[in-house]
Amino acid sequence: METKYYTKLENRKVQCHLCPHECKITAGKSGICKVRSNLDGVLHLDVYGSLSATHFDPIEKKPLYHFHPGKEIFSLGSLGCNFKCPCCQNYHISQSGIKDFPRLLKLTIPEIIRHAKSNPLNIGVAYTYNEPFVWYEYMFDTSQEIKKAGLYNVAVSNGYINKKPLEELTLYIDAFNIDIKGFDDGIYRSFAGGKLSNILDSLQIIKGRNCHLEITFLVVPEINDDIGQFRQMIRWIVKNLGSDVPLHISRYFPNYKMHKQATSSGSIRNMARLASEFMSYVYVGNMTGNEFQDTVCPKCQQITIIRDGYYIGSDNLTTDGKCQSCGHKIAIV
Ligand code: SF4
Ligand code: SF4
Q1: Relative to the CA of 17, which ligand 1 atom is closest?
Q2: Would you state the CATH architecture of domain 50-293?
Q3: Which ligand sits closest to the CA of 198?
Q4: Scanning 11, 27, 147, 283, which has its CA 20 to 30 A from the CA of 310?
Q5: Residue ranges per structural domain of the chain
Q6: Residue 192 CA: which ligand 2 atom is closest?
Q7: Hey, what long-range contacts does 230-234 have (CB within 8 A, 24 or more apart)?
Q8: Per-residue pLDDT reduced to its tens digit, 171-206
């Protein structure tokens, strides 16, 4: 499948304009993401129609806590990523191209719709597991049809994409969960291989388009756990996106190329307490039995949604999403 967003250069070279890497790719080679390849002077998406994983997940697992809580979402993953995080949980698919991973599931868009509609708890499709922006054309075409079918689209992403393709996507994607890897360009360069400013631009575009947005921050010891930088990040979020954006502070565990010890629960709790001074909805992920799972009304401090892991216990919300105790509107879709 020929991709969008590229230009042809001399000698059958092409330049991809999907993400800020702006890869210049010679014939027979692929870009940094491993799934966009130059076939004789034409840029192709190698994985159009091909998936590495499909599953019905609780929407809370994305994580999205403020978008149709308690429902499920048909989750699709493919191959590739434009980042190289050394602790990637899904490195076997994110760091693979089609030659490394020949056993892919072929699924047409009508088949995806059929699956999505087969589960009465399911609200739509999530593009997730590896970085979905690198299989942009398959995600874009699917999301258009999913929307026409009356279902929702969710993207779980690192946010590293150029402005124009992101703006086009926001017409169809209803909810995003975007990672912030650290509030420092040096961290982005050395840890993931990207630039912080591009992620901040993406967050503002998503918010400006009125899509539902939640943010995940994975705390990795000695990489991005500097409390001063964390405070700067919280300030930036509150100023530019608002204090109602749900923030998921997630605990790192050793994985892939990173073997340092898991983040201490004390450090995660300190960060969550600090963030809660400025933000209304702060959650802790990857840490069982913590006090930052439930949704608390920012006005009267009553619990409005009780969670047990990815599952909803009960809620104290009116049908129009207000706190039953004080009537405050909770920022939940
Ligand atoms: S999407 Fe892939 S090929 Fe395109 S610029 Fe980004 S990393 Fe390079
Ligand atoms: S951005 Fe996500 S999928 Fe890509 S390498 Fe990092 S953790 Fe893995």
Answers
A1: 5
A2: Alpha-Beta Barrel (3.20)
A3: 1
A4: 147
A5: 6-45, 50-293, 301-333
A6: 6
A7: 230/183, 230/271, 230/274, 230/275, 231/274, 232/183, 233/180, 233/183, 234/274, 234/275, 234/278, 234/279
A8: 999 999 999 999 999 999 998 899 999 999 999 999
